[in-house]
Amino acid sequence: MGAVKSKRMPRAVREQQMMDAAVRTFGQRGYRAASMDEIAELAGVSKPLVYLYLNSKEDLFSACIRREAQSLLEAVRAGVDPGLPADAQLWAGLRAFFVHTAENPDAWSVLHRQARSHGEPFVSEVGSMRDEIVTFVTGLIGAAAREAHSDPALADRDVAGLAQALVGAAESLAGWANDTPDVSAREAAATLMNFAWAGLENLMHARPWTPPAS
């Protein structure tokens, strides 16, 4: 009797296995230093198979960015219950963000450090994700303003600016938290919530800080 052939792994599963290895390698070694040989070895496949499935190192890196960006977006959206009060929604979104980045440090390194330092098309891929997060946070801040006032005191421009500032702060804080021992996702989220919510609350209750005239 001939030997029984082992069941072949579905292509989609094999691709995810390769991308898992690629995210780990890119995140820890950087895009330039990472080699396709190293990625193939870590994935347990041949280098020609990586090229067959994912074309090139650039295409593989772009695919990793898209996958990890989508995963982060889904985690943040899933963490927010729209039925909660505004501050609880913002807290839930921040905590979901920091939990995800803490549990996936290599993915966050790919998105926040590697992709942004190697030009196009990688910067555009990350920019699209960031735009979606900013839009989501803008909605949360706008909801908070509507909750505080039947006629919201915050102008659309102010809301958009606050969302940009909050997302930028979250990105920087996530990098710091991942690099600093013993900083939990909850602690990082609480730090940003305390920093942001006091200011947002003052704005929503018409108590903005006003710069001096001179």
What secondary-structure arrangement, pairings included, does this model have?
Blueprint: H1 11-29, H2 36-43, H3 47-54, H4 57-79, H5 86-103, H6 105-114, H7 122-148, H8 156-179, H9 185-204
Helix pairs in contact: 1-2, 1-4, 1-6, 4-5, 4-6, 4-7, 5-7, 5-8, 5-9, 6-8, 7-8, 8-9
Give a written overview of the molecule.
By secondary structure, the chain is mostly helical. It contains 9 helices and no strands. 32% of the residues are buried. InterPro entries: DesT_TetR_C, Homeodomain-like_sf, HTH-type_TetR-like_transc_reg, HTH_TetR, Tet_transcr_reg_TetR-rel_C_sf.
Number of helices: 9
Measured on Cα atoms, how large is the radius of gyration?
A: 21 Å
Helix content: over 70%
By DSSP, the count of extended strands is 0
Residue-averaged pLDDT, rounded? Answer: 86
> Strand share of the residues?
under 5%
Sequence stretches where pLDDT stays below 50 over 5 or more residues: 1-6
How far do the termini sit from each other?
92 Å
Q: Helix/strand-derived class? A: mainly alpha
Taken in chain order, the helices and strands follow as: HHHHHHHHH
Let me know the largest β-sheet. Answer: none
Molecular shape: elongated
Domain HTH tetR-type: 12-72
Protein name: TetR/AcrR family transcriptional regulator
Organism: Streptomyces filamentosus
Keywords: DNA-binding, Transcription, Transcription regulation
